[in-house]
Automatic annotation (TrEMBL):
<feature type="binding site">
    <location>
        <position position="68"/>
    </location>
    <ligand>
        <name>[4Fe-4S] cluster</name>
    </ligand>
</feature>
<dbReference type="GO" id="GO:0047134">
    <property type="term" value="F:protein-disulfide reductase [NAD(P)H] activity"/>
</dbReference>
<keyword id="KW-0004">4Fe-4S</keyword>
<feature type="binding site">
    <location>
        <position position="94"/>
    </location>
    <ligand>
        <name>[4Fe-4S] cluster</name>
    </ligand>
</feature>
<keyword id="KW-1015">Disulfide bond</keyword>
<dbReference type="GO" id="GO:0051539">
    <property type="term" value="F:4 iron, 4 sulfur cluster binding"/>
</dbReference>
<dbReference type="GO" id="GO:0045892">
    <property type="term" value="P:negative regulation of DNA-templated transcription"/>
</dbReference>
<dbReference type="GO" id="GO:0003677">
    <property type="term" value="F:DNA binding"/>
</dbReference>
<protein>
    <recommendedName>
        <fullName>Transcriptional regulator WhiB</fullName>
    </recommendedName>
</protein>
<dbReference type="GO" id="GO:0045454">
    <property type="term" value="P:cell redox homeostasis"/>
</dbReference>
<comment type="similarity">
    <text>Belongs to the WhiB family.</text>
</comment>
<dbReference type="GO" id="GO:0046872">
    <property type="term" value="F:metal ion binding"/>
</dbReference>
<feature type="binding site">
    <location>
        <position position="100"/>
    </location>
    <ligand>
        <name>[4Fe-4S] cluster</name>
    </ligand>
</feature>
<feature type="binding site">
    <location>
        <position position="91"/>
    </location>
    <ligand>
        <name>[4Fe-4S] cluster</name>
    </ligand>
</feature>
<dbReference type="InterPro" id="IPR003482">
    <property type="entry name" value="Whib"/>
</dbReference>
<feature type="domain" description="4Fe-4S Wbl-type">
    <location>
        <begin position="67"/>
        <end position="124"/>
    </location>
</feature>
<keyword id="KW-0804">Transcription</keyword>
């Protein structure tokens, strides 16, 4: 599963519980081990994780890589133009910027900065207009 898909599905439980396929050990060539050379060792099975620890572990690993997990979430939904531009600049260095933008377009995000672009009413706009009436130009 792609990392962007995992990020989009974390609130819904991510990709599910982690399960590990049994691993087969390589044939032993040590005569002292009590197993003849060329005989495979029985595979070892690992228990599945069902305690929700997989989502926490994923968050811990990814949190240092993605700016929206490091900085305050309010920054990506800011009203001030300065804050919106800061959020857009932080997105530029994110390794998930293209997947984030594609997901936001697909979901028609109602507002905020997604994938380095500003969304208003589900569409990408060049700049976000500030609150209130525009200034009069004399």
């Amino acid at each position: 599963m792609r990392l962007t898909t995992l990020l989009d599905t974390i609130p819904q439980g991510g990709s599910g519980a982690w399960t590990t396929a049994p691993l087969a050990a390589p044939p032993s060539t040590d005569p002292q081990a009590g197993i003849s050379a060329g005989t495979a060792v029985a595979p070892t099975a690992f228990p599945a994780r069902t305690d929700g620890g997989d989502a926490r572990e994923f968050d811990r690993i990814v949190s240092g890589l993605i700016p929206c997990r490091v900085h305050d979430a309010e920054l990506w939904f800011a009203e001030r133009q300065v804050d919106v531009e800061l959020a857009k600049s932080l997105c530029a260095d994110c390794p998930l910027v293209s997947g984030c933008l594609a997901g936001a377009i697909e979901r028609r995000e109602p507002w905020g900065v997604w994938g380095g672009q500003v969304f208003v009413d589900g569409v990408v706009v060049a700049t976000k207009r500030g609150r209130g009436r525009p200034r009069k130009v004399a």
